[in-house]
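Researcher: I've been going back and forth with a colleague about how Cell division protein FtsX might be arranged in three dimensions. Neither of us has a model we trust, so I'd like an independent prediction. The organism is Paraglaciecola arctica BSs20135, in case that matters for your notes. Sequence below.
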Amino acid sequence: MSILFKGRVQGAQISQISTYQRFLMFFVSHFRQALGSLGELWRSKAASLMTIGVLGLSITLPSTLYVMVKNAENVSSGWEQASQISLFLKENASQGDIDQLLKRIQLWPEIDAIDYISADQALDEFKQLSGFGDAIAYLDKNPLPNVILVTPTSRHSSPEAARLLLDKLRDEREVDIGKLDVEWLERLHALLDVVKDLVTVIALLLFLAVVLIIGNTIRLNILSKKDEILVMKLVGATDAFIQRPFMYTGFWYGFLGGLLAWIAVILLLWWMSSSINVVSELYQKSFNLTGADFSTFLWMLGLSVFLGLTGSLLSVRRHVREIEPK
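Model: Here is an independent structure prediction for Cell division protein FtsX. You can compare it with whatever you and your colleague have in mind.
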């Protein structure tokens, strides 16, 4: 053989593959395997649709709860008034003392805004809202005090911080009584924390179920192609090359499941919008469901793809490595 191929070997030129060609071949190989994995899903439509449906519906529930919590936070954006402190000023406080108090507390870093309501303004408002205007006209003097409404910053609107601010305001010499419904504020924050924790627990359980479902599906695909994997290893294929199509299968499961979850969330919000409009009309408020924007779509799609790849990775690394030719 050395005589036959001696001249050919001497005259042969070893071709060098450039970095650009390696880079291009890398992406072409990945693209072909990605399309091949998508074709495998298309050839087994029934099983693929069932897996995608389970994945999509599992992501739909926590995504819908997330959107609803986000809308609830928008609705409760006006609830910061629950931490609003009412300061009833002393009767003998002069207007100059009140002005000095307003200027002084306005500089406090804990306070976001203040609203001064004089006794005359409060009496006029009471006449308009109570319907006892004629009876109030017989009073000898205005029984209502001057009031300052203090709104803390978002950082100091928690129950404990608002209580400390109330104690600090009570020490001012012009203040007679300070009032804050701390118990209602604590109940409000506790309720929001419970809802957020519930959404987090449900989401984690469903995400774990998605990872296990995809991992089991990929495991069955690997076992069904055991003979093919043995032949590929006999001709020198690496584990990474064999694992890649199954990883892309998990990617497509996650991608298509995320799209299905997004469509399901849109339909659920559209179906619930009519009932929400009825409730908002009863309270004479206008409210539109929000949260199903493009950023939420990207978040859902990215999370779904991550779960698909995680389930594939856990199954592929174990089962492909176990298949070895004897």
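Researcher: What would you highlight for our discussion?
Model: I'd start with this: The chain has eleven helices and four strands. After that, consider the following. Residues 239-282 form the longest helix (44 residues).
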